Amino acid sequence: xxxxxxxxxxxxxxxxxxxxxxxxxxxxxxxxxxxxxxxxxxxxxxxxxxxxxxxxxxxxxxxxxxxxxxxxxxxxxxxxxxxxxxxxxxxxxxxxxxxxxxxxxxxxxxxxxxxxxxxxxxxxxxxxxxxxxxxxxxxxxxxxxxxxxxxxxxxxxxxxxxxxxxxxxxxxxxxxxxxxxxxxxxxxxxxxxxxxxxxxxxxxxxxxxxxxxxxxxxxxxxxxxxxxxxxxxxxxxxxxxxxxxxxxxxxxxxxxxxxxxxxxxxxxxxxxxxxxxxxxxxxxxxxxxxxxxxxxxxxxxxxxxxxxxxxxxxxxxxxxxxxxxxxxxxxxxxxxxxxxxxxxxxxxxxxxxxxxxxxxxxxxxxxxxxxxxxxxxxxxxxxxxxxxxxxxxxxxxxxxxxxxxxxxxxxxxxxxxxxxxxxxxxxxxxxxxxxxxxxxxxxxxxxxxxxxxxxxxxxxxxxxxxxxxxxxxxxxxxxxxxxxxxxxxxxxxxxxxxxxxxxxxxxxxxxxxxxxxxxxxxxxxxxxxxxxxxxxxxxxxxxxxxxxxxxxxxxxxxxxxxxxxxxxxxxxxxxxxxxxxxxxx
Amino acid sequence: xxxxxxxxxxxxxxxxxxxxxxxxxxxxxxxxxxxxxxxxxxxxxxxxxxxxxxxxxxxxxxxxxxxxxxxxxxxxxxxxxxxxxxxxxxxxxxxxxxxxxxxxxxxxxxxxxxxxxxxxxxxxxxxxxxxxxxxxxxxxxxxxxxxxxxxxxxxxxxxxxxxxxxxxxxxxxxxxxxxxxxxxxxxxxxxxxxxxxxxxxxxxxxxxxxxxxxxxxxxxxxxxxxxxxxxxxxxxxxxxxxxxxxxxxxxxxxxxxxxxxxxxxxxxxxxxxxxxxxxxxxxxxxxxxxxxxxxxxxxxxxxxxxxxxxxxxxxxxxxxxxxxxxxxxxxxxxxxxx
Amino acid sequence: xxxxxxxxxxxxxxxxxxxxxxxxxxxxxxxxxxxxxxxxxxxxxxxxxxxxxxxxxxxxxxxxxxxxxxxxxxxxxxxxxxxxxxxxxxxxxxxxxxxxxxxxxxxxxxxxxxxxxxxxxxxxxxxxxxxxxxxxxxxxxxxxxxxxxxxxxxxxxxxxxxxxxxxxxxxxxxxxxxxxxxxxxxxxxxxxxxxxxxxxxxxxxxxxxxxxxxxxxxxxxxxxxxxxxxxxxxxxxxxxxxxxxxxxxxxxxxxxxxxxxxxxxxxxxxxxxxxxxxxxxxxxxxxxxxxxxxxxxxxxxxxxxxxxxxxxxxxxxxxxxxxxxxxxxxxxxxxxxxxxxxxxxxxxxxxxxxxxxxxxxxxxxxxxxxxxxxxxxxxxxxxxxxxxxxxxxxxxxxxxxxxxxxxxxxxxxxxxxxxxxxxxxxxxxxxxxxxxxxxxxxxxxxxxxxxxxxxxxxxxxxxxxxxxxxxxxxxxxxxxxxxxxxxxxxxxxxxxxxxxxxxxxxxxxxxxxxxxxxxxxxxxxxxxxxxxxxxxxxxxxxxxxxxxxxxxxxxxxxxxxxxxxxxxxxxxxxxxxxxxxxxxxxxxxxxxxxxx
Lengths: 585, 338, 596
What we know:
The complex is a heterotrimer of chains A (585), B (338) and C (596). Chain A is an alpha/beta fold and 585 residues long. In chain A, 37% of the residues lie in helices and 20% in strands. Chain A folds into four domains: 2-200, Pyruvate-ferredoxin Oxidoreductase, domain 3 (3-Layer(aba) Sandwich), CATH 3.40.920.10; 208-382, 3-Layer(aba) Sandwich (Rossmann fold); 397-468, no CATH class; 472-582, Rossmann fold (3-Layer(aba) Sandwich). At the B-C interface, loops of B face helix 13 and strand 13 of C.
């Protein structure tokens, strides 16, 4: 079921949504939550929180909502088209003023919707002395109406508000209880859907994390030493999190004057041997590209997180998009192949961020981790992630002692990886430069050298395929009518669509690609060849992944491109799948 | 150019038929039906059979769910009208919404009546007017064996039939006050007593209830001037009283129901009342009457709608046949069936 | 403290007193009180309702009683039988706010709990050496007698019946108003030196001219004791009585004869008293026959409910045409009626429906359709019925020392109106006889604080008045008081419900920073962004021109007419710029020794 809370900025909408996520997570359910905020800082604008809750793993947001909790009726009108036919709406039936029919929420609802009107503001004021607690009163009502054990919410409220002092906590609990009691009494004779709380996922500590929180936590756990960055939506929370946590572990966060100096500082740190990273979004990433290629040329590790958003240029800062793939893979002067990986959910955000440091070290290259606004800001509950010592280990290939004094930093090897000494190591001095250079590191522009070094660097990057996660297939069999390839946060919607199609008896499959570059061409090709049609949905206009891998297929791949700024809904993809199934070759 | 807005308050047979009739005659009129119960229109007279299990909930509904939508009739369920302001032509809903109307049909029906004398015990009485009531009865009858029926209106007789079919023991306390606007004279009383007794019902006549006490969830004690009884549930069937308290001091002429003329018009232009909530002077009876029964309400709803858009149909006092117990007509079907 | 005029920011015509209390005579302030303390405004006697309810909450029942008594000489009586014009105007009874406060019930509680032997504070003036005769010891007459005697006049009251009280004693049955309550309040009035002579009928036992000779002023407050007739055939049949005669006999314990099937024709308090008394005298079936609908009844809802609960039927939309019977009454023929529009006097015009004749059998018929004043032989101009006429503003008749007040002058009204009229007449007489004014009304303004009232109290449901149950117990004994009265706890709970509309909240626009926190927490549309405040020629606020455009906002204003005095705005204001004051309409003694 999907529960939405909709209100005006200042109504406590986001807090309420957060409590729903926490409470249901405590109850053992799988939770995926995504909020939308107003662009302005204070006072005006609509806030909507969406929480999808299930007893099986939730991988995507649903199209439709089962329950709408309205803290501001006029704003909530915009959410009505998303309600299912037999959904429920909780709203304040004693607002401070009268409302015309044209501006009334109740007037817009279809007859099948169950209305749960209660005097939310009055109850909150009566219970806690202030009307501000009415978001909690509404949660109390939600609890009563849908049969959720109230203690889940009480614990979530305690966890959240204990740090704000006893008075605040008690006031909030009172508001919650007032809503609970009132709804229990008033709606006891209503035939309401009871949320089935018996089917829970297994135990095992589950925490709620957003994509950004997972990335930041991963970086900490992986032993990040230094963070350099410049604030930009949607990557800023990573820097904020690290600014609090990193110094406590002996690291440093420094806000640089721009993204160029940020990447410069990261390269400088890693050059000197300390794990460093930066996080940015499309416009900032574009500024970094020259120095990224410097990292490619000088074979210096770096971890760069690109949290994609609507583009091009400043674009749509609070909207989600997947349109930096080209920039990540190809951006910057020259043939500057580097590693690009893209997690598809919060758990992978963690795992891949940890991995990115190792990959950067071993392959002596910038590693770009692509996420997007939706993935960065959505919360999921997952087992508390942790990195093992192997996962955190230093993957730098140090030179053998025997090469002391005759150390060639960029020696061409079979793998393309040249052992890397850290600067200041006696007997292992070298020059690192963004100019083309010899194996020793000295600048050289001769034709044979450039051919050789280009080949070496490419050989090295392609070798990363061995350490990069292979595409994963989810399918109902060998021969498939339709195969859907997804990357980034879109994959969740792809998976749900494919699962639904399979339940309906269609022979379909999904392929998850997390290694964008280098990509596992053979695996992808072999999947494609088993498909009647290959569909690649992407949140970008030109079909950037399709452009990258489409040639692997023996006919045209079907592109499904949306740049609406909102995540793919599974039903959109499902619709395409079903069309293709009927369409023949 | 905004189309005229006709609002119908109520979602029973009168309201439903009025809405469908209006739409049938006019394509442009904006029609909104506002019903207090959160369910689609259903046949309330079938509730006894729903309680007994003979019918399922789906059998009660009249129109398929998409019907109103297809006819472009806005159906608002589970919403209550708090008051109507006739000089500004506004309806105020109890969640503080203001709905403007150009024409209005009030078809709110009646609510179960509890005589003032017994109102202090109303917590212990169970009525059977709505689907919600029926659900409560269904739950109660899982454990209840002996039911005391107090009153004697139309529903009580068909409900008694249903209870007997479920194998329950029924005690029936006839209260002459229950049949307004019918007159419950001695002839009807003895006929009713005879038929009930023949079916195995214990009939108590001319009792004054002195007290009721709830002993437990499943036990109620009743003291009358003649005996003390212990039963599992008490049903209140004193007939219906028009549900028009919300229109008090609105300017409409209200007696027991909304006073209308033969054409179902109230004193305000474009405002009609139909069904169990409307009260009309009946020259043959030399009294005011309020219709009872599904079919009558259905009929009056239709007439009100047709008159609203320009018709001139008199509301026939079809109910007169109810007053003659001997005369068999469709409106006395409950009687002949029983 | 300089008190700015609440409305126009100018210096008002006020007096400043020590302690920051101001008394204002500014018409704008009176207009404010009219709108903002609706209960007091609705009370004909201008009882300071919020003040006495607050005292009851503080369990200062004696003080609460006194506040009542200062304008209403019979709080214990009115606390039981008043028509409660205040409750229909109570702000708590506004549409979305719930039920009005049980103002009357709390008054009774104050009377019940004030404690025996309570000391009454009264201001007594020394005698100006004048004498006044009051004809009639009903509520108007006794109220006038009390006020005149405290001013110092030598007052004699002449009463035709054997006991004082008028309709209170003879019109209202004991089960609504116990005799001892009435007696105690009458005795308290008489204690201030009023001489009461009962059993004396002016015009028969003593002539008006003689009274005019012996006294400096004569006030006729003789009430209305002539029953109106139906003027239908059969009205004189045995078994038909007037409502007045019936209740007077019943209340004088002369047990009038009553049959089994009683029809009471009439729709006022009298008719209801007759119906319920008839039941207690043994009638089996009692019906009240009214010409219009129940909605049009002017008795209180409690009264209607209890009447029905006792088993009395109300037959509406019927008008009597003939009373039938051979040698004694056997039934009444009625016509059905159709309701029409409301007339200016508040009653509903009804149209009999031709051809709708029907008969209701009865063996007793009581006609309680109203009363009129009985003419008293006297000098002075009279109306066409021969009843003395008087000026409604000054109570003066055409004869210099002769005055008339109360129902005698206006026709039947309510008890509280009569009391208010009697007091006003006393003031007028005192002024005419001495040239001085003794009392005046003023608006008292004082700085105040937020009270301990909590918002949750606004959701307390109205406390029901406990009544004797089961209904059968009410008939034995038949004079048993039906309404039991609030307990101390119940009175406390109900008193909490009063918003205390004498509080006034005002935003100081010089200090307001327009943060609108107050609007966020307001429970209804009581705080507004206004472009302009609309005032009338006297300076009273009559409306606000609101705006949503920031550029046009000139102030954040509290609309006190919508305010429910919850105090949320005061608590949340970060600038602490919302002031609280207490604004009360009070009556003050003007004479030098009469200090408040």
